[in-house]
Amino acid sequence: MAGEDYRQVSFDIWQRMAAGWDRDRHWMWDVSRVVGEWMVDALDPQAGQTILELASGAGQTGFAAAAVLGDEGRLISTDFAPKMVDAARAGSVQLGLRNVEHRQLDAENMDLEDGSVDGVLCRWGYMLMGDPQKALHETRRVLREGGALAMAVVAAPAGNPWATVPGGALRELTGAPPPDPTAPGLFALADPDRTRSMLETAGFEVRRMEDVGMTWRFESFEEYWTFLTEVAGAIAVAIAALPEEDQRALRERIEEAVEPYRTNGGYELPGLAQNTLAA
Asked: Which residues lie closer than 8 Å to 180 by C-beta, 6 or more apart?
């Protein structure tokens, strides 16, 4: 898909997903806390600094940083989908945070001055961008000297059955080919060598790169299906586009395929993130 076409499709997807991310914000943070806290700990924000969060979604990772920035510090919480910005704004109000500025911002074309922020956070964002290399160059541009980037992407498919199981079932049902591993998508930056190369091309030095395991917990298959159809981005849109009969068939296939992950308390599907600190 051509660049501008992809950007419009991606924009529409995340506008549609914003309501689910807003509704499930607490659950999402519980699931992803180990990833987000790694990022914030690695970035090590200090009181009085300005921290930028890109592709914030409902904002939780940035909010963890805002808590240590103090009244003199500032978190700039951004997303390119305005409904996601609204979701993050609702979250900061709920938490009583007064040092957060919410902005719609395109990470590939930032309306920010050179050297204007002390650190950048981006959880599960660069892999979905139409031109992640351009976004990384922009990230380097807006960082002050000595500033750092803490980022997370989805790691290798083998470590992420929460995503590969439904994706595989959808391809089996529709006959769609496997996705291009370098095209924008969940696994676009799963190859650590590619991630490192893109960071170095943008002028960064990788300080740490680690796989961080997590568990996607669902109390029932119904809860997992709701996640897949209302929160999970591109696959949610693909499911919605299917005829009702095919949606029912897909649901049955996925329910059967995740049976090995059933527990007494629901389902536990492994996930793996690739977390990086670069400066």
From this structure: none
1 has a pLDDT exceeding 70: no
Please give the Cα distance from 263 to 215 (Å, whole number). Answer: 13
Residue 211 pairs in a beta bridge with 274
What span, in angstroms and rounded, lies between the C-alpha atoms of 227 and 217? Answer: 11
Mean pLDDT of 189-213: 98
Residue linked to tokens 């500032």? 74
Longest distance between any two alpha carbons in the chain, whole Å: 56
Name the amino acid, one letter, at 126.
Y
Domain range annotation of the chain: 3-156+181-217+270-278
Name the DSSP letter for residue 194. Answer: H
CA distance readout (Å), 162 to 97, 215, 271 = 32, 9, 6
180-193 mean pLDDT:
95
pLDDT, tens digit (0-9, with 9 covering 90-100), for 249-267? 999 999 999 999 999 889 9
CATH class of the domain defined by 3-156+181-217+270-278? alpha beta
Q: In the numeric block, which tokens belong to residue 198?
A: 């893109």
Model confidence, pTM? 0.96
